[in-house]
Amino acid sequence: MKLSTRRVAQLAVMVALLVIGAYVSIPLRPIPITFQDAFVVLTPLLFGSTAYVAVLAYLLLGLVGLPVFAGGASGMVALSGPTGGFFAGFLLASIVVGALAEHWHWGSWWRDLVLAEGSLVLIYVPGVLWLWHVLLLRGGAAGATLLGLAPILALDVAKMAVVAALARPLRSALAEV
After folding, report:
1. In order of start, what are the domains of the chain with their CATH numbers?
2. 6, 37, 105, 176: most buried, per Cβ within 10 A?
3. pTM for the whole thing?
4. For residue 49, which of 106, 9, 7 has the smallest C-alpha distance?
């Protein structure tokens, strides 16, 4: 894959938005509410299959120790903690939604809404499975935690509707630049 300088710059802006989205958070335990997922999903809706590059770069920045995750977290501790599965889901969603966005060409709000809302499955399945694993190792109550995810999920569904509404006008604006 060869990326133009323009596309690299656009993806770098998305990495910066991912970092900002992590810092705009409500620090709930064990999973904070952030805006990372909105930018994770917006990226493939705007850039198709190259979107994973931005998400992977974001994850690598955190892995090497830069405080780019929610609450300024970083490193393997953050990636292996309760939110680690959600990070894996971010990468999975960027790959799958990016590929689907490139090949599913009816560019209406409905397409973007289906892809955005569907991305939550790709983010939540590895996230919840990993969360169960971590909490069971710590002796926590996985069922109670899943009930605690319900408010986060409801907010995420609303965020994805906003992402879907923004995707088409942003694609148009990017095409004009």
Report:
1. 5-176 (1.10.1760.20)
2. 37
3. 0.91
4. 7
